[in-house]
Amino acid sequence: MILNEEELVRRCIVKDRHAQEFLFNQFYNSLYLIAMRYLSDHHDAEDVIIQSFTRVFKNLQNFSFHGQGSLGRWVRTILINEAIRSLKKRRLIQFNDEIKHLDVPNPDANGLQQMQASDITRMIEKLPTGYRTVFNLFVVEGYPHREIAEMLGISENTSKTQLNKARKQLMKNIDKESKYGTKGY
Prior knowledge:
Elements: H1 5-13, H2 17-39, H3 42-59, H4 70-89, H5 109-114, H6 117-125, H7 129-140, H8 145-152, H9 156-180
Helix pairs in contact: 1-2, 2-3, 2-4, 3-4, 7-9, 8-9
């Protein structure tokens, strides 16, 4: 039985298959959800998870323990970088700096409260790739626009524009869902 992250890392470094399996199983579900937020496709998410774990096991000797939870943060960062690398490689991520005026009414607060988290997650998954990627990095992961710009090879203003467009699109979809009960986002 593995008691802590430091022991888990030590055992994985010496190629203990039980420890590697434990590490994989410990993080798989949360990484799958993160990968789906970026990629919106089961098969792409699975591919990125495998690529991420390959990178994790290959680079574990470079991991620095910084307290409980640091291994999870490190693995999660690798997955996010692999997801972005996958989007860039397949040229699925495109950015448009042009801001078009969108009149988006504030969604009905009661309608929003009645929505399930899974409905909102599906709405995020349906956003255009650029919007979705910046939204996830900024809102969910907490990266500042400067770091997002560096990660994606875009300007800070493009990052801000993509976030603004993502929020407006989500608000529009939430408003539509709360008024009409449609799932056609």
